[in-house]
Amino acid sequence: MTRDERTCRIELGEVVIDLVCEDPAFAASMRQYFDQGPITRPATVTFDLHLVNHAENPPVPNSLLLGKVVAGGSFDLADGLVHGTFDPGTGHGELHVKTILTNGPMTRVFEQILYQVFHSAARRIGYDACLVHSAGVIGGDRGFLFVGPSAAGKSTIASLSGDHAVVNDEMNLVQFTGSGPRLLASPFNGFYRDKQAATAPLTAVILLAQGDEHRLDTIGSGQAAAAIAAQVAPPVGLLDPPEPSTTEAMLETALRLVGTVPVRRLTFRKDPGFWPVVLSEFPSTT
User: Is the pLDDT of residue 218 over 80?
Assistant: First the structure.
């Protein structure tokens, strides 16, 4: 049994997370879930992943930031649901995860651990990027983030975008560059299997509202920033305790987006007819 057989590699832009599992079968299932194929970039951070069996099913909160405790280089999430260590200097750590988080829909909660791992890794190499709950679609050479709370229509937008490249229907990566933000694929939320590993400059952020027509409306910058901030993944690393400043950091990220790309509100029916409206509003520049 080689280390490669026990390792699941996850790539998010310039960040690569190596999860070294005790069980090669579990590593294989993780590779299938994230479905990224071979990754050649060296690891930014490496974690030894240990699954912890339990007799009774512990409660699982909606957010793994609730009840988080940090002491030195160690952390505990949700009363031991996840605990571990991390050394920012070496980029190495350990994750001890109760097995309830590896079953079915609970895997979505497990991904929240990896959001925190991503932020620790990005900070380690100075990678300027954020994660946003959204549907990410590339239409031609234009990247669009369709943003909204649960049930707003992100998965519907993805399902109606078969003529374009859907990079994710729930969580997307935005990289801030000198030439503006860029939309990149995210491996998270592996239940959506039609993703494409594509990238493009971010052309606009579209706030979603379901209705009986297809219409784009302008929206004030303050209202736009508040709506986007609510969907930014908290920029919290593994060794960061939850603090009031976390909300401020989410709003700052939203304001960066509002300050660099247009924001519109899209009212749409459940058919692909919204695409001509969006693309006519934001024509290709090439």
Answer: yes
- Annotate 94-126 with DSSP letters as a single string: EEEEEGGGGSGGGHHHHHHHHHHHHHHHHHHHT
Instruction: Sketch the domain layout of the chain as residue ranges.
Output: 4-125, 129-281
User: Of 199, 149, 140, which Cα lies nearest the Cα of 170?
Assistant: 149
AA identity, residue 145:
L
Chain segment 198-208, per-residue pLDDT in tens: 999 999 999 99
Q: Report DSSP state, residue 36.
A: -
CA-closest candidate to residue 124, choices 15, 269, 10, 260 = 15
Two structure tokens written together for 201:
């400059």
Average pLDDT, integer, range 50-66: 88
E-strand spans in 5-110? 7-12, 15-21, 45-52, 69-71, 74-77, 82-87, 92-98
The burial class, CB within 10 Å (0-12 / 13-18 / 19+), for 262 is middle
- Report how far residue 88's alpha carbon sits from residue 73's, in angstroms, rounded to the nearest whole number: 9
The span from the CA of 193 to the CA of 173, in Å, is 17
- What letter would DSSP give residue 44? S
Q: Is CATH 1.20.120 what the domain over 129-281 is classified as, yes or no?
A: no
